[in-house]
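Following up on my earlier message about magnesium ion. Here are the inputs again, as you asked, copied directly from the submission form:
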Amino acid sequence: MTKWVYSFGDGAAEGRADMKNLLGGKGANLAEMASLGLPVPPGLTITTEVCTYYYANGQEYPDTLESEVNQAIAKIEKSVGAKFGDKDNPLLVSVRSGARVSMPGMMDTVLNLGLNDETVEGLAKNSENPRFAWDSYRRFIQMYSDVVLGVDHYHFEELIEILKEEKGIDLDTHLEAEDWKELAQQFKAKTEEELGKPFPQDVREQLWGAIGAVFSSWQIDRAKVYRKLNNIPEDWGTAVNVQAMVFGNMGDTSATGVAFTRDPSTGDNEYYGEYLINAQGEDVVAGIRTPQNLTKAAREAAGATLPSMEESMPEVFGELADVFDKLEHHYKDMQDIEFTVQRGKLWMLQTRAGKRTAKAALKIAVEMAADGLIDEKTAVLRVEPAALDQLLHPTLDPDAPRDVLTRGLPASPGAASGEVVFDADHAEAAAKEGRSVILCRVETSPEDIHGMHAAKGILTARGGMTSHAAVVARGMGRPCVSGAGQLRIDGKAGVMSCAGREVKEGDIITIDGASGEVMIGEVKTLQPELAGDFAKLMEWADSYRKLKVRTNADTPHDTSTAREFGAEGIGLCRTEHMFFEGERIIAVREMILADDLAGRKHALAKLLPMQRGDFIEIFKIMRGLPVTIRLLDPPLHEFLPREEDEFEDVAKAIGASVDHLKRRASELHEFNPMLGHRGCRLGITYPEIYEMQARAIFEAAIVVEEETGETVVPEIMIPLVATRKELGMMRAVVEAAAEEVFAEKNHRVEYMVGTMIELPRAALQAGKIAVEADFFSFGTNDLTQTTIGISRDDAGRFLDEYVKKDIFAQDPFVSIDQEGVGELVEIGAERGRSTKPDLKLGICGEHGGDPASVEFCHRTGLDYVSCSPYRVPIARLAAAQAALKD
Ligand code: PEP
Ligand code: MG
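Thanks, got it. Here's what our run produced:
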């Protein structure tokens, strides 16, 4: 028979940390902590299988669930010495969700469950604190009504405000027992008015209502958005944790807090966290009161006046520090912890691996390996490749002038500039138009997730380092400044102000998530520092990976950046990209619009020295590393002149009339340029183009070999090949150019000729094509476009919907469609190698920098991946992890 409920408490538990799939992260770790003998309030976990069952069976529970829950509640009652629903000595519980991986702020929590008009009196008597009891009851009514019954919490906030006004009081803390009692009555009446039925007094009804609400919340929109953004499968489900309440709001010897065993922002090995005296549950994360520091050192560093926990509760702090050490040694990872102190007694409410910035992840992994807590392989596996992105982005130039508007908390590192927007929907819309925005909010909530994702940075006026904005931004790798308390944000009016200065929606600001500064205007940024922990971890990663990592680079500048990031060669130099600027584009247009061979040759003669010059620089920067140069593959529409002045420029350069050029351009017009006269089709019809390019490459190689004495082995790549014949003909053009140049210069260089595999036919015919090829490079951008039949240029309009509807788990242009496009890559690789067992294989589509695709390439046995310069470290780490997972 399936067991649906697992108990924990009193130094024992039925579950374990490795049962996360069944118990959810929270439940599994509560069980583990209980087994470790840590002070955990007793409780029960309803498994994720119940959630799955619930959705598979028309929202019904398994038959035996209720009796299992009852038995587990009885155990809690025994442990605590109180009874659920008992009017003299009531047991109160919290009900919380807990999926396999943490989903911050996504799911709902109910506290103080078990209170009703009778049990509240018992609580008042036992706690000898009627104010606390009535405050707890009204909190419960408020939370339960909101989360379970769907009565919005503002109704209740309003009633509190009205009462405070009547009594001439500013602060909630000045309300007394009678006031909370009065409010509890009003709250119940409000709920009844909204729902047409009374607030439930039966504690079992309350419990099942809350359990049902947790399961339902798995399917609310913001949970779905979060899962989508984080690739969490819909069918994982959530567990429900029911746990005896402990109270951090029982007076000045009580407190509640969140802590990390190390600094999650910098990775420094220091306890880090915040707490609030006399507060309950989510008060710390909600950002309603400003939390106090955990340690004295942190308080001093922050210049805060309110005492740290280390100072105000030294004994409990000492106990907490012991728990931190015990947990870190047990889990061998940095932990994120929630705790409560009830009248001087410490209780642990949660532990989990702490979310951290990439910088912290690196530092923690490297230090833990150095301390022998984990080995090097584990360290390499600990850092999420995609998260490196955060480190590889620019920081503010310390010497750049800056006009600081205000300062907040350095909640998530990185610097970003952009237009001010005050609303998540606006942020998303602006980002879709390609604008950079900074989302500025009083505080953020899960409803803002899509806007936070779209923004370049996030700024909030309220909330601490563990506020929603801070936690989510760190997870997403967005720079974030939180709790900029001087800032008055009036989103409705479209303006924020600080110290007499105003910033309007649309104005540019810069935020520095490392210092907490908020600046007016754009501030110059610097490239990241790649030494230290980063270099160390990369060195370890490089020792495990099998795949080589090259870069896609078209300019000397990109090439240098990529080398700094550790690229081991160029996997794709798109020669058409070398022609985008100024004079060059005119010469290219001249070539394209030429009426005949003579006109084309005239234009090509202008392009030759430009190409040669670039190749010389690139070969020099790459110093003997392989360089794959792809011959021209210009989707024509990207290169034809469009505007009047563009026609005029070309007309002037070649002495033709604008009218003539326009006619010529309209002759060249294509209905489907992506499937048009591009790639090797251009070389087949105008071989002189490829001939010029081959000449430029060989001349450059000879110059560099003669100047530096180093060997240069260019890899010349023919694009968009569908048949063996195409490649054979283009190969002949390249070879002829080579022989001509070698004879002229009396200097031979070694070289290779290969092809891109970016059409389904090429993948299928790879066995034959390989006869003419020294290497293959899978062009998975075009291969995706042509396999799925979705235009690279037009997919944006509908692909979102495809992902939302789960037709594709992810955008196939971002992460390779492993079963479709991937199968063609496998076929191409296998057939190519059956002709030439040592055929060199790589990938140069955008997928080369996507961790999941890199893993796929590793499994498929490719020799290298090639990606944009900034993603080279991501690919290096992903390749190492793929190898370690073998
Ligand atoms: C490809 O198609 O994957 C590729 C790398 O070429 P391009 O993106 O230039 O078409
Ligand atoms: Mg292509």
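One observation from looking it over: The two ends are 36 Å apart (CA to CA). Hope that helps, and feel free to reply on this thread.
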